[in-house]
Amino acid sequence: xxxxxxxxxxxxxxxxxxxxxxxxxxxxxxxxxxxxxxxxxxxxxxxxxxxxxxxxxxxxxxxxxxxxxxxxxxxxxxxxxxxxxxxxxxxxxxxxxxxxxxxxxxxxxxxxxxxxxxxxxxxxxxxxxxxxxxxxxxxxxxxxxxxxxxxxxxxxxxxxxxxxxxxxxxxxxxxxxxxxxxxxxxxxxxxxxxxxxxxxxxxxxxxxxxxxxxxxxxxxxxxxxxxxxxxxxxxxxxxxxxxxxxxxxxxxxxxxxxxxxxxxxxxxxxxxxxxxxxxxxxxxxxxxxxxxxxxxxxxxxxxxxxxxxxxxxxxxxxxxxxxxxxxxxxxxxxxxxxxxxxxxxxxx
Amino acid sequence: xxxxxxxxxxxxxxxxxxxxxxxxxxxxxxxxxxxxxxxxxxxxxxxxxxxxxxxxxxxxxxxxxxxxxxxxxxxxxxxxxxxxxxxxxxxxxxxxxxxxxxxxxxxxxxxxxxxxxxxxxxxxxxxxxxxxxxxxxxxxxxxxxxxxxxxxxxxxxxxxxxxxxxxxxxxxxxxxxxxxxxxxxxxxxxxxxxxxxxxxxxxxxxxxxxxxxxxxxxxxxxxxxxxxxxxxxxxxxxxxxxxxxxxxxxxxxxxxxxxxxxxxxxxxxxxxxxxxxxxxxxxxxxxxxxxxxxxxxxxxxxxxxxxxxxxxxxxxxxxxxxxxxxxxxxx
Lengths: 348, 331
Hints:
With 348 residues, chain A is α/β, with parallel strands linked by helices. Chain A has helices at 59-66, 93-102, 120-131, 137-150, 167-179, 197-214, 225-231, 249-254, 259-266, 307-311, 330-335, 337-343; strands spanning 10-23, 31-44, 48-52, 74-80, 85-87, 103-106, 185-189, 217-222, 234-239, 242-248, 317-320, 323-325.
């Protein structure tokens, strides 16, 4: 895939995308929760696009909005894979059915995602049957075997039930199920978080080779920055429903601009026992999305906060080729030696 | 004498499918003020080992008669496995030994205030009044960085955020001034920024209280930042143990080497991710010989025929592998 802006076509383009939930229960009666607010985001076709942030940042909701699995409150999402061009807010029933085939989700927990009462074959075949994509049992079987082989599943295992499999094997079954309808956009929501490290690398390598072989585009949602650094070519960082920074992976990790990104990177524990972190640790926790602070959402925890941040919300602006950041002070912080030193600390 | 000495711990469970071995001949020790990292993937027996230290495993657990867990307390050494009644066990459970669990939401009772839970266990284990316990608990909450501790003391677990709950859990575990703290994946459920806060907090507290900590995790980077020594477990076996620097920089067991290669390294984005091939076998199908032989790249005939004994590679750095022991002249 190409890294230059000019010849990249976006498979997903979100403009001013907002997803709000109305809370009805208990104390929060009729409060609005802005899970995703005014997000502009382009996902280049063929990319492995990382979406990171702490719990409560809205990354899962944003992923679900791209799959049209949550109602979009405001703004637009355009899906264009070269064959079709959909505006996700007003899809006809037939188009939505077609979209379900083209955009798929891989879940986090391979233990909860697979029905214990179905054989592996039936689990993988179910989307084909539900969507009516195959006309005969033979055709279904053939497609299941084809995708199972691509996901490096032992074809002998198709007759077994999921309980017989380990976490890594189950995740391969989940991947095969997601890919069986031949989609081109996949949302992988914390898809390796429940796996042991020794297995995790295997699944990551599989996803990458599937991307290359089948020409897929991945939105890879994760809280694990070292995994994202290794597998993704672009990264977007979310905080309290907003995008705060997006950049090509290497650039983001080498020269993060937003104070939140810097703090996230410096919080990754180093494998070097003698690593002494001089980075400023982030104090406190992410505020509740039902009661977000005014101005920049990060100002309550930001070490570089000034008065302007408390009242005026910064917009996402270009800070370089494909590098966008939403911070009033990114320019001066990029030149400030102390702030620079803090961001360099990751592997010092 | 060490604060805790575990000798030849072997533990099996009676199940419908037969007797399975969860921990096989594991030995280690901890000194006061020392953090021992216990690493391994799911099914390696690390949590079962930790629970054995407080005699918390369920009734179908069968301890081998040769197993010994000795805790050195102020009144002399206690043999944990010989304690039978719940009353005798009070010495270790929540008294001299405290435990922090992975999921702080599941560790607090939902309908009792955090404060009442802290006070209850203090009154139970220490000879103090409820009023003293209240003062001490609020003090502990402040120590772990919970602001507005007096107000928080009267709240319920659901009113706390994840990071705060884990802090409260730590405050509660430390309020009885245990000699040994067992922390079972204490940061796994937390965000990376909160994890960093909790790691710092635990480091400070070890210094202040001079207790021993067993830090159980599957994350070697967290171990690198917290532990003095590391023990690596695989399928119930201790395969390697040593000072944290030696184990991470110069691992001797192929499993430890594989684990380190599988970790995505933030400072080298070009390094390929190399998985450890295959999956950890079911405990019902423990391989004969070396337990790691089904996934090991360096397998030889002897690895399937006999179990490698623990050899010393350098001072305090031990491992159980035929192949690397010969290569490096371990004795």
